[in-house]
């Protein structure tokens, strides 16, 4: 399905413009209670916008909405004043994009337009889905020095909550370049719960120079962290992280809310592959994206207290980086970029949904290998101005217009909303609803 680029702001302006209920442009300045602008707004008669609603939807002072209590024009510059008692806003400047609605008793407020757009999205929730492509899991086999821990082999892997259907499962074709396996796990170390453990790190080396992108860290959550976590790749100073990142050495974030209380590999994906030299000491470091602490909601990272990795050791941050007593190692894997993916045959995948949605794989690659799930998820309402509308724009416009007119019908306004609603309904009936059928052999997540 092609990407739909129409945003909430663009759709609202499209609908309100069709109702002659939009004045928009960039401010030239203002104060905590005023906005000044030139252009179309300055061509309107002084006082004609009094009583209308003004919203700053982008740039400085966004997003705020106020009622206009005064409208003056002088020397080609319009000045709008927010109504008495209105909360002040940040002083607008040349980046502040404004919208004005409810012109001369027409149309609706910004909130009413937004509600109508989301009503259109809700109407398609049972018929449309959105593409999902997720690399957050990695294979766990339980092999390693700690033979007694062989029971750590994982056969069932949780399906991310965003999936309604899983269409395909893929494994990264290449084995991890370096790893410390789950079979060596002996304990867990807390991270992000106190200043003395705000960050943790692990030294590592790769045997071959090249680009690397996937870093699988064995972890679990404590209580319910909701903030984002990030991983960085740093150079080395005397066996500890140097604080200097390699080029592109910050991963995409992983939401704490998506982690599990049961330990598993979590894959941190670098936005762009990082180049690492062969047999050179590097460190991955893990922390909250905000670099703060929470004594209740945090993470545990799998640890080998025997320190059996050999190409680096674990470290911890307590205002500076320091070694951990006993020189333990964390459980992790590092996988290369630019490697193709191998699709797992449907016969080797089984859905398990007794307590929580999961997939059981009959075949697994080398431990630490990233697992990629491709499927479809539910469309979602929009709230941010730049959020993309997840349904057909024409359908959204017609349905939202119908919904808006039905909400305004019966009110004393300049337009005949009953008549407009009937016209919108007739147009809506001409637009077929798109139904997204699941792919062959897809797994429905229940």
Helix-strand layout with pairing:
Elements: H1 8-18, E1 23-26, E2 29-30, E3 34-37, H2 40-43, E4 53-58, E5 64-74, E6 77-82, E7 97-101, H3 110-123, E8 129-138, E9 156-158, E10 163-172, E11 178-180, E12 187-191, E13 199-204, E14 210-222, E15 228-237, E16 240-250, E17 254-255, E18 264-276, E19 282-288, E20 298-304, E21 314-317, E22 321-323, E23 329-330, E24 332-336, E25 341-343, E26 349-352, E27 358-361, E28 370-378, H4 393-408, H5 417-429, E29 443-444
Antiparallel strand pairs: 1-7, 2-3, 3-6, 4-5, 4-7, 5-6, 8-28, 9-27, 10-25, 10-28, 10-29, 11-24, 12-20, 13-19, 13-21, 14-18, 14-20, 14-24, 15-16, 15-17, 15-19, 20-23, 21-22, 26-27
Helix pairs in contact: 1-3, 3-4, 4-5
User: Which percent range describes the beta-strand content?
Assistant: 35-45%
The structure class reads mainly beta
Largest sheet: 7 strands, antiparallel
Q: Shape from CA axes?
A: globular
SS element count, helices: 5
Number of strands: 29
Q: Give the terminus-to-terminus CA distance.
A: 23 Å
Regions with little confidence, pLDDT below 50 for 5+ residues: 144-151, 409-418
Mean pLDDT: 89
Query: Rounded to an integer, what's the Rg over CA atoms?
Result: 28 Å
Strand order of the largest sheet: 1-7-4-5-6-3-2
Note the quaternary state here.
Answer: single chain
Tally of domains: 3
**Residues in helix, %:** 10-25%
Structure, described:
- The protein has 446 residues and is mainly β.
- The chain folds into three domains: 22-101; 108-128 and 380-446, no CATH class; 132-376, no CATH class.
- Helix content is 13%, strand content 39%.
- It has five helices and 29 strands.
- The chain has helices at residues 8-18, 40-43, 110-123, 393-408, 417-429, and strands at 23-26, 29-30, 34-37, 53-58, 64-74, 77-82, 97-101, 129-138, 156-158, 163-172, 178-180, 187-191, 199-204, 210-222, 228-237, 240-250, 254-255, 264-276, 282-288, 298-304, 314-317, 321-323, 329-330, 332-336, 341-343, 349-352, 358-361, 370-378, 443-444.
- The protein has a seven-stranded antiparallel beta sheet with strand order 1-7-4-5-6-3-2. Strands 11, 12, 14, 18, 20, 23 and 24 form a seven-stranded antiparallel beta sheet that branches.
- Helix 1 (8-18) crosses helix 3 (110-123), helix 3 packs across helix 4 (393-408) and helix 4 packs antiparallel against helix 5 (417-429).
- The radius of gyration is 28 Å and the shape is globular.
- The relative contact order is 0.19.
